[in-house]
Amino acid sequence: MTATIATQNREEWLNKASLLIDSEILGPLTNLQSDRALRIAIAPIRSKRLGECYPSSRTDDGANEIVITAHCDDSELILAVLVHEKIHALDDCKHKHGPVFRKAALAAGLEGKMTATVAGPKLAATLAEYVELLGPIPHSAMSHLAKDKGRNNNKLVCDDCGFKANLSAKWAMQTGDGFQCPVCLMNNTRTIT
Known about the structure:
about 190 residues, 3-stranded antiparallel β-sheet, 2 domains, alpha+beta
């Protein structure tokens, strides 16, 4: 593979990669097949997971949905995640990470713990060829946003009388230092977030 196949956007890149994975990896090496529609997208995922596959029962049109985290821009890693999630899609997520999934994953060249597989050497070499053919994914990684601390981690503290109160994140942002203490009425409070 020497010429690069041009892609307009990351979803087009993922769909072209998906066709390569089907024809060269999953089709010949596993006995799983499906005629269900499949949609693949990149979107933020709140957990540490790199990808998720949703069964056809979760969509109105009976398609499987694969979401790859927007927090990663490593093309080869994204392809390895796509192989993992496509196995789930072929199985319509019925067997989770059990023996049916394991057999297909090992046949495809995935290794490690089945809930967090990585590409083995042979699969990694194939995926590197795909990246050479497709070019790097046209996507830049998004950073994780810090989660609001919530109600009990924001404090209003009076340095005069020692009064302390829990604040929601909303009120912690609105209450600045020097706010009047509701107990001693001094303007010597501070907000700790």
